[in-house]
């Protein structure tokens, strides 16, 4: 029998307990609460709930379709051609995606667009266009161009080639991008809360309203169950689709793209410049409107209702530091379990750690309220916010460290063992130096996620622990042009901080952001 | 008859084809023979209209093709890597050109079946491309090129990717298919044996220029320079 290695048990136990207590247990509590409520029935609120469920689905479907269509010209241009500024254009398209949802919401409010479905849809397109450009573009740039040429030689016009060859070959990537965009918009919270007003609510927003404003926890739990079913069904449908459609497409290594010439030159220019101008409008208007009046100076003034707005920056930074440390510690431990063991344990760890990614942030925050009142009441604890942020960030840390750990050849570790290193020593001498860089990228991701996190935080933030996104929404929901301008100013600061860190990550890992 | 009149082709900064003069008579098979990287594939792509020519002209039976887009030129091109459509089965691939010509579905099916018989793949209609062997892929690619009955077919290293035994067999088969059908064909290859077996006439190509053309015995008897003598060994 092999002796038990206590070090390994500890490394596996920490992430297991963390995820177990702060994620799985609250989730189970929500499920039991929600299912019992569903049994009791809703006494008369069904009509409204059905209305909300229906709105959630159709706005998500429409957002997804519109995003794919809106992203098509840009995707075509950057994946098929080489031109000056192509890399920059691709990076710029990604900027909206990394902006906190609250900033995107504030930007559309700055455009004077509120309480409308149109604003929600356009904000969703703005936010998710990068998902399509990156995912579909990655496949499109690797399609064998001979397939296109073969179609042309066989008598197909450009349009016929696109319809009968290119589009079917791109379908797996379009499906993947659509699944991601659908999930994001199906569980959209910050954008809908800010832009939807009282008339338009998604399930996510309604969970928040029922739990926080009306304090009907059982009904909120029931809604969370409905939403979880929707998310699970989407993921299931997508994985089934992938299983049925995996085939060896004729891919090639990404080769030199041609320079566009003639009519293509004009179309590429129009696609890139048009997309970038459209995407820059909300950001430019946000910045411009934040500069009016005394918005920035106002942030320093103490307010009896919302507190001192500028203090939220300190809160956000503090939480972000703690959340990054937690996420990296738990994430790296989990990654070494995933890569170190074989078979069932590895697979289950991998799957469980990815779950928070599919669960909405609101569900995570709501779960804390429902489950963490006993045995020790953690609900008022300072630690709860960074823990929630870490939960959201752990999948990203795991995804950035697992491939790196897997890339270390087994022989390297075996060589160290033969030379007399204990398992712990092997980890310290071989794995750790190699994984540090990936962990750093993971930490930076966690930092950005923490700065922008709003869904979970909105449940657990106290008046004196408001983060920047929470403060922005508080300011936006107050009447008066002064708080409105302050909200925009704070949004600009948050956007600036986010952009700086993202650019730093970009330099650290050479433009891999947004490979989903 | 194809008439290529002193064309230049530039890819990026590089002049890939320089003053190419070449004719292919109707019913004739011409092979362009040269080492890899000499611009042979680019020549086929220029004739197909897939890359623009910088100067000179390409005509078919006296008609200048400069303004005719690729899909209306009526030439077939068999790609070096075959470029079979992976999302379509054998029927979908071989029938693609016929469907582009708006042939009724019944006729498409009949013509595909007949073409598959011609290349020795009788009954392969519903096979998936992924399940084909290398030799079968070559035949499907040839069938796809022949099915729409183009006025000229171009073959880019048609046997290049196959192993030796298979090549020798397919060389004979391909030659038979070309000459039985009275097909006009332009073949490019780096292999002297292949050029000799498939064609009536050979044009030797080196670094983007044609250095000599004629029948192989003629060229061997009077090589234009030392490079030609060395290359033909």
Brief account:
With 516 residues, chain A is mainly α. Chain A is built from 21 helices and no strands.
Give me the strand/helix succession of chain B.
EEEHEEEHHHHEHEHEEHH
Largest sheet of chain A: none
Q: What overall form of chain B do the CA principal axes indicate?
A: globular
Our measurement of the CA-to-CA distance between the termini of chain A, rounded to an integer number of angstroms, reads 42 Å
Overall 3D shape of chain A: globular
Q: Count all strands of chain B and give the number.
A: 10
Averaged pLDDT of chain B: 91
Biggest interface pair, counts: A-B, 23 and 29 residues
Sheet with the most strands: spatial strand order of chain B: 6-7-8-3-9-10
* Rounded average pLDDT of chain A: 85
Rg measurement of chain B, Å: 18 Å
Question: Number of helical runs of chain A?
Answer: 21
Unreliable runs of chain A:
510-516
Explain what you see.
The complex is a heterodimer of chains A (516) and B (233). Chain A is 76% helix and 0% strand. By secondary structure, chain A is mainly α. With 233 residues, chain B is an alpha/beta fold. Chain B has helices at 40-48, 90-94, 96-100, 105-118, 134-146, 164-180, 192-198, 216-221, 226-232, and strands at 2-11, 14-24, 29-33, 55-60, 63-64, 75-78, 152-156, 185-189, 201-206, 209-214. At the A-B interface, helix 6 and helix 7 of A face strand 6 and helix 3 of B.
